[in-house]
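User: My instructor asked us to take a sequence, write out its structure as tokens, and then describe one feature of it. I'm not sure where to start. Here is the sequence I was given:
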Amino acid sequence: MNKDDIIKLVLANLGKDLINDPMEEKDKSIIKIYYNLLKREAIINTRPDFALTYISLQKSATKDDEYLLPKDFLLKDSATVNGRILLNNIYKVNTKTNLNINMTYFADVDESYYTPTFVKYLALSIAVDIAHIYERTESSVANLILRRDEAYTNLRSANAVHNEYLSNFITFY
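Assistant: Let's start with the prediction itself. The structure tokens for your sequence are:
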């Protein structure tokens, strides 16, 4: 599975009820990789500029919680956030084990930017991030950590990469 396939997979499953329409195990493992890396602090202390600054994880009764962050886990740069945008359930996964992952985003922008286009842009950022993380973890987590600053500078800025994917995959929303 290449990066574009992963992006399509993530975008296609945004907001989906995966209890009634469950993910393949191999696809679900991509999401687990993403949260494992968060737990290992592989992407903490990145980007003071834009995108993912706050993550809240809520779980139902399940034993499959080894990769979960504590509830209300706060990234260190969140204290500098000015404008606040709450995008509830923009990415919500309900697995067969009744695990609920709710991600709430705070963005350093004025709330007037809370538009359908902006919501799509943030969702797209998540997909690109997951794809990029997955690519890097195929070799090693250590390699991702060493190169995280460069990776997130590129991926989390409003650059040509995001614009390209936005134009290619906007139909998924």
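For the description part of your assignment, you could build on this observation: The helical segments are 3-12, 25-39, 116-137, 141-146, 148-155, 160-169. Try explaining in your own words what that tells you about the chain.
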